[in-house]
């Protein structure tokens, strides 16, 4: 898989200060504060740092921050400290945070739905069920009669709960097993019923 990553720079601030150029002694120097950021697939992830460049518009002499004479460097540091990074430098981190919040909300909502479905079972509900001997299978509700819930077990099992979707098209046994609502809730509370689909 090809991964595109790297760093880029963006000018955060530009200003001309009326100070003499050390090279030609003309008044007026341009300062630019450049912010750099790491990107992944061209999406800015997080800021890396800031640097300052000074250019004389008269003689075109340029200095990076570490090359500047001491009297110019103080102006450069002042410009650097007042420039702010834009929020979009953090776009990737913000997107990742939103993704995890969405996952957490979805998981919480799914858990609430499962509890509601266990408390009020309906014909056609399908439970992901953890077997005593290991592995997972599906139980399908075929009858709800007052406090009794009748389920049939899928004839197949899988090693992991993530694989139970493969069992949906597989056949179920014909002889149902009865659970009381209290037993069904206990199976869920003990994490033997790990998911409910309606």
Structural class: alpha+beta
Form type: rod-shaped
Identify the strand order in the major beta sheet.
8-7-6-5-9
Strand content: 35-45%
Order of helical and strand elements = EEEEHHEEEEHE
**Radius of gyration from the alpha-carbon trace, in angstroms:** 32 Å
Spatial separation of the terminal alpha carbons: 37 Å
How many extended strands?
A: 9
> Counting H and I runs of at least 4 residues, what is the number of helices?
3
Query: What share of residues is helical?
Result: 25-40%
Spans of at least 5 consecutive residues with low confidence: none
Write out key terms for the chains shown.
198 residues, alpha+beta, five-stranded antiparallel β-sheet, four-stranded antiparallel β-sheet, 3 helices, 9 strands, rod-shaped
Provide an overview of this structure.
The chain has three helices and nine strands. With 198 residues, the chain is α+β, with helices and mostly antiparallel strands. The strands form two sheets. A five-stranded antiparallel β-sheet has the order 8-7-6-5-9. Strand 1 (5-20) and strand 2 (27-40) form a beta hairpin.
Task: Please provide a brief summary of the model.
Helices cover 26% and strands 38% of the residues.
Present the secondary structure layout.
Layout (H helix, E strand, L loop, with lengths): L4 E16 L6 E14 L2 E13 L6 E3 L5 H13 L8 H29 L6 E5 L5 E10 L2 E6 L23 E4 H9 L3 E5 L1
Antiparallel strand pairs: 1-2, 2-3, 3-4, 5-6, 5-9, 6-7, 7-8
């Amino acid at each position: 898989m090809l991964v595109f990553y790297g760093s880029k720079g963006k000018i955060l601030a530009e200003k001309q200060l009326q100070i003499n150029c050390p090279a030609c002694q003309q008044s007026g120097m341009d300062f630019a504060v450049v912010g750099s950021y790491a990107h992944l697939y061209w999406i800015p992830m997080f800021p890396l740092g800031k640097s300052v460049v000074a250019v004389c518009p008269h003689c075109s002499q340029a200095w990076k921050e570490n090359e500047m004479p001491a009297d110019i460097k103080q102006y450069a540091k002042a410009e650097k400290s007042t420039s702010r990074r834009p929020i979009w430098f953090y776009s990737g981190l913000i997107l990742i945070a939103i993704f995890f919040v969405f996952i957490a909300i979805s998981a919480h909502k799914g858990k609430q739905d499962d509890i509601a479905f266990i408390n009020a079972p309906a014909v056609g509900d399908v439970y992901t069920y953890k077997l005593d001997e290991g592995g997972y299978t599906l139980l399908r509700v075929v009858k709800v009669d007052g406090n009794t819930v009748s389920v049939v077990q899928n004839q197949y099992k899988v090693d992991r709960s993530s694989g139970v979707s493969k069992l949906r098209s597989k056949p179920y046994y014909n002889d149902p097993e009865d659970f009381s609502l209290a037993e069904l809730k206990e199976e869920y509370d003990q994490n033997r019923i790990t998911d409910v689909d309606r």
